[in-house]
Amino acid sequence: MSLTTEIREPNAATDLKQPDMSRARATSWSLWTRQTLAIMRLEIKKNFLSRRALLLYLMAGLPLVLLSALALFPPPNDELENFSELSQVYAAIYGGLILRTLVFFGCAWVFMNLFRGEVVDRSLHYYFLAPVRREVLVVGKYLSGLIATVLLFSITTVGSVVILYFWRFPTESARYFFDGAGASQMLAYLGVTILACIGYGAVFLIVGLFFRNPIIPALLLYGWEWINFLLPPFLKKISVIHYLQSLVPVPMSEGPFAVLVEPTPAWISVPSLLLFTGIVLFLASLHIRRMEISYAGD
Amino acid sequence: MAVYEHLYGAYEGESHSAWSRFLVIPRYALRETFKSKLFTTIFILCFIYPLVAAILVYLHHNVNALALLQINVRELLPIDASFFLTFVQVQSAFAFILTVLVAPPLISRDLSNNALPLYLCRPLSRAEYVLGKMAVLVFLLSLITWIPGLLIFFFQASLAGLAWLWANLWMIQAIFSGSMVWIIMLSLLALAVSSLVKWRVVASGALLGLFFVPTAFGQIINELFLTRNGHLISLWATMKNVWSGLFGLFVRKTGEIRGRVTTPIYDNELVDIALLEPPLWASWLTIALICAVCVWLLARKVRAYEVIK
Predict the structure, then answer these.
(1) Is the residue at A20 inside a domain?
(2) Are residues B239 and B135 in contact, defined by beta-carbon separation less than 8 angstroms?
(3) What is the pTM assigned to this prediction?
């Protein structure tokens, strides 16, 4: 395994009689980077090629199948006959299906299995026995999950837009996307998908680390995110979906019972989510340093 | 005692009758289940709604209590079919949560530890093994669904009198069969997932996904295709229709929308399109199909040995 070949450098660094601190630090960083990349390579293979990935592919493919069916068998709906209404239709599909359900469950599936999956496979000790800092392991695994989910759900997001617009209105769509506001709207949706993967990924990584049975926290989180529209303004901010919805280019009505609040501006939403992710990864790193493996009961 | 001094001894304990052998499995599984504090807490929480329902029934018939609380009897929920329908729906939602907690390790643990041969080398058939595992869920879920439902029904009957009981006797069947259909479907689905996925966490996740993802997908289908047939792929919506049917509250037409229609009669004209729920037979058929697929999966996966190439 490539991990074993990477052990030697820290020893070399510590063996220096007169340690040059800045050089040693630079060596450590380059070592950690290479180790992170090595872990990522291993994990990306697992995320994309294992049997567990099948469910992820299925989830990512659902909207594409649905929108292809919509294009092939158009319903008697005025909204779908009118090009200007398509942005509202997409907003409903994106908000109701892609963001709140598929990205949520996709991230839960991938990120909770990063550590919990190793425990149930009884293989986490191989990583713990390797001369790799556990923080590096957390970062490597998180990044691998992020690459898998971002890649798949970005394809879902962009693919859905393309199928919905171009299948039925190719000329108008080409004008809308290449000369109009379409491209920026699509990029905004793509950005929201990526941020959702970053935010939910961090949450589920830590849930998978802290809880032996992470299903109940996941269920509670799903409920919390779903009732977000009913929550008072202060509580709304303690959720990922609030920040994501603030960034969506076409806002959707949340119904008559929704508690209306001003959307959080992008310059607060994006750094908040990134800061939250950073804090969660830091906590995960602290936790994993003291983590002892017990395979019993899993 | 040295090992060689151990001699074969025939079983001297009490022997079980052939039909009740499968009950050994739930006995041990239930003991294991109640060791979990989380499960016990959630199980207790499942009785909050029945308690509230019982209090509502009591308030309806207690003038003193109503006067004390300064509530008009008309402000309280009526105790009728819709009251018991809501009761079944709420308790069934709790039943799902309990299933997600209890069911995943039931078969997956035996499969991942290669313990199935140990069960099946005893006088226990594969069907009895599955029945035993199912009995765990049926017992637990019955305790929170139809048993309290019937208790509240008889509580109301005892307070309202014989006339009310005779007029609403049919509801006993609705409460019982509505709950049992949900329990059997949940149990089969959970056991099938548990037999397919050998890991508890993954099985729980799959069960949650099977429940929530088709629900959202069905909802989007309904919105886009101006239909309500998307409910057929949502377990919860299908069951809601079945429950409504059993309680005599099923309404097919749930809305109306204006859409453009091109048919031999209408040429791209705007007309009112009625949004019709799928017929009841379609909902029953969906449930039967789900159960049949689960039974087939269980028959395939629950085997004493497995040939691995």
Answers:
(1) no
(2) no
(3) 0.81
